[in-house]
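task queued by scheduler; priority normal; single chain, no ligands, no partner chains; default sampling; output format set to structure tokens
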Amino acid sequence: MTTQTPHRGLHRGNERVHLIWDLTILALVIINLALLIIDSLFLIPALNTAFETVAPQGYRFYDETIHENFFTIDLVFVSIFLLDVLLGWAVAIAERRYPRWFYYPFVHWYDVLGCIPLAGLRWLRALRVFSLLYRLQRLRLIDVRTWPLAEGIAKYYDILLEEVSDRVAIRLIGSVQEEIRNSDAFSRRIAEEIIAPRKQQLVDEITQRLEATLGDTCRRNQPLIARYVSALVGRTMQDSPEIQRLRRLPFGDQLATAMDQTISDIANRLVREAIVGLNSPEFTQLIRQMADSGFDALLITDRRTDRITERVLIDVLELLKEQVAVKQWRDKYAEHDMAPPQ
């Protein structure tokens, strides 16, 4: 048997009181908004005449009891709403919810302005409904996300947000494409302001990648390279006129074969040494100088290279526009709609 501490029981009691009060205020706000809508419709001549014709007794009751005393009835609601604002302000001060005690009316401005009994400000009370629902959601007393209405609103909000953001993104990318087409100095600015300041980092990256790629490729294909070198030496020896004359001499054939084998062994040994030497500082320095020279040539732009750079950038942006134009919400909600019910 577990015992409940007084503090925990008091906390649960406070939550229960808050829940009852919030639900009461929520019901009063809904009733007050309903009265505002009905009284606004009552002021429309066509609807007023139709109401009087269809239900004369109800018309007289509403006209004499509610419409004539609407301001007084509204003041009753206003007094309750004002009390809710003052209580909420006091609780916020007690809980130190905001850095300063006077922040509450500025944060909940719609509650404060909604308490003013003016026609244009009364409709701000509708925001109080969302405020109360948020408060109940924050206290985990309700879960709005599971409501069918909330799911529908969230669905169409996502669709609207994606459609609007896609249109803005496509328009922005199109403007960038036009800027690239109409600006002759764009490629030059890319070379001077983006690539040139990062030249050393890019050269180091290219050097490391080339060195790693060449070393790995040569080591994995060393037997193939050895066979190629042997075949190349063999064809060269066979096609050489000096070797052909040597073969016609006594013992020349054996001598030519020995020379072929010796040269092939020397060439393969050179290849093996060259592969091992790919990790040497000398080879790294050679690759670095080649990359550095290539970057210097790249930074020297002309009209032809400018056009190529512009075309590449425009095509990349066009591909990005196509990706942005994909309506992802169709796939998302198609899978959701096709999913079996839980």
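post-processing summary
- The chain has a mean pLDDT of 76.
- The two ends are 37 Å apart (CA to CA).
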